[in-house]
Amino acid sequence: MTAHYSLMADARPGDNALHVYSPFDGTLLAEVDTVDEQGGRQALARAHELYASRQLWLDPSQRLEILTTAATRLAEQADRLADIALKEGGKPLVDTRVELARAVDGLRLCAQCIRTGHGEEIPMGINPASRGRLALTHHEPIGVVLAYSAFNHPINLIVHQVGPAIAAGCPVVVKPASETPMSCYELVRILQEAGLPPEWCQVISTASHEVSEALVSDPRVGFFSFIGSAGVGWRLRSQLAPGARCALEHGGIAPVLIAEDADIDAAIPLLAKGGFYHAGQVCISVQRVYCPAAIAERVAVRLAEAGAAMVVGDPALETTDVGPLIRQREVERIDGAVKAAVASGARLMGGGEPIGERCYAPTVLLNPPADAEVTCHEIFGPVISVYACADLDEAIARANATDFSFQAAVFSRDIDTALHAYRQLNASAVMVNDQTAFRVDWMPFAGLRHSGHGVGGIPHTYAEMQIKKMLVINSPSL
């Protein structure tokens, strides 16, 4: 039966509904109310009223209790939400369960931020100008948070955007991805059941991209959180009102270096998982693997074998490793990029074709040219390219030859080799003997250059959604 999701916002719904379809079989899953520009601004106005009236702010004990209770309720309803998330997002059941576990832990981490977050004392009395003074900082919410999310982790990304806002005391208006709004509505409902007043977290789905863009420029937005493509993110950032802060999380073209002394047997399963997990629809998915020329073909063959052994299909099955692409046109786009790479000289080592209309086979290419789409741009699909290099420094130079910079990896048994790669790679994080898609939710997570702006990770987002307000006391008793 088709579900219906009403607006969770202080706004009148528009005339059009958003239709949510299963990416695996095209089944209509839900109809979701949308807002026009006027409705979106009404939601922002209500959120700003809360922020402007300090007597209405939720105190830390309330926020702590809400987040702790919500974590418990989410854990209790994990199976139900996993079913919803995999149906609308297509991530296989085994991986969706992991996402739900992370989301539960993420809400607990948000609560922990309230317990551990604090200001600091600023040194005074150390020269004539500062004598007789005491100075300290106290944290306050930055203002209304407007959050636009992505489809690929429909529960956990909302936790990363909404959870820190609640912990910091910010009213938040969240717009989930149009492909996966159901998980967001369900999560916010759980937060409300845990005691969050509905007006403190409003959920909207917009009637058009034009409405979404218009809301970003509203002067009542204090902080804009965006997860999505670089082109959209940078354009929206340029439209922010003066003084509004933002965090942008875009994609990468994650490079992996394999040194001559690397443990190939250990590397292959990690790289295959990192490249083919969620059909490659991960911003730090393994995409480019640079190897010594003597072993490049062997690495490509073994990655292709690992991909061929993966079960592709229905995400609801326990045995499925790789599910569908989020939209059918993504299958066509990826297939076009793979075929173009092969036509320009790459060797197809495995995969390279759609499976049905909505899935794509785990694919491995050997030596695509430097100007191929699979080399220069985020493929966001289950495609790994392997490149033969003369030495590690050539591999580093080629890995760095893009405008994207996010997470990278190096495989080596020699600490000096690993540290050389760490020092030279353009990346915000370098994994040693691990795949690029490793992440835990308390570590800093930041795209550089075209890959993003600001620092993610729950404690870091919590800090960015606050201001440090200083108090200076002048007293003859000091």
How are the SSEs ordered, and which strands pair?
Layout (H helix, E strand, L loop, with lengths): L2 E3 L11 E5 L6 E6 L3 H16 L7 H17 L1 H12 L3 H24 L4 E2 L10 E9 L2 E5 L7 H13 L3 E4 L5 H13 L7 E3 L5 H8 L4 E7 L2 H8 L7 E5 L5 E4 L5 H13 L11 E5 L3 H13 L19 H16 L3 E4 L3 E2 L3 E2 L2 E4 L6 H4 L6 E7 L2 H8 L4 E2 L1 E5 L3 H10 L4 E4 L15 E2 L2 E2 L4 H7 L1 E9 L4
Parallel strand pairs: 1-3, 6-7, 6-9, 7-8, 9-10, 11-12, 11-19, 12-17, 16-17, 19-20
Antiparallel strand pairs: 2-3, 4-5, 5-23, 10-22, 13-16, 14-15, 18-21
Helix pairs in contact: 1-7, 2-4, 2-5, 2-6, 3-4, 3-6, 4-5, 5-15, 9-10
Explain how this protein is built.
By secondary structure, the chain is an alpha/beta fold. The chain folds into two domains: 3-250 and 451-471, Aldehyde Dehydrogenase, Chain A, domain 1, CATH 3.40.605; 255-432, Aldehyde Dehydrogenase, Chain A, domain 2. 38% of the residues lie in helices and 21% in strands. The protein is built from 15 helices and 23 strands. The chain is globular, with a radius of gyration of 24 Å. The termini are far apart.
List keywords for this structure.
6-stranded mixed beta sheet, single chain, Aldehyde Dehydrogenase, Chain A, domain 2, 2 domains, 7-stranded mixed beta sheet
Quick description:
With 478 residues, the chain is α/β, with parallel strands linked by helices.
Give the CA-based shape.
Answer: globular
Which fold does the CATH topology of the largest domain refer to? Aldehyde Dehydrogenase, Chain A, domain 1
Q: Tell me the fraction of residues in β-strands, as a range.
A: 15-25%
CATH architecture descriptor of the largest domain: 3-Layer(aba) Sandwich
Helix content, binned percent: 25-40%
Name the CATH class of the largest domain: Alpha Beta
Low-confidence stretches: none
Report mean pLDDT, rounded to a whole number.
96
Gap from first CA to last CA = 70 Å
Strand count, sense and barrel status of the largest sheet are:
7 strands, mixed
Strand order of the largest sheet: 13-16-17-12-11-19-20
Secondary structure category: alpha/beta
Number of helices: 15
User: How many strands appear in the DSSP assignment?
Assistant: 23
Tell me the CATH superfamily of the largest domain. Answer: Aldehyde Dehydrogenase, Chain A, domain 1
Tally of domains:
2
How large, in whole angstroms, is the Cα Rg? Answer: 24 Å
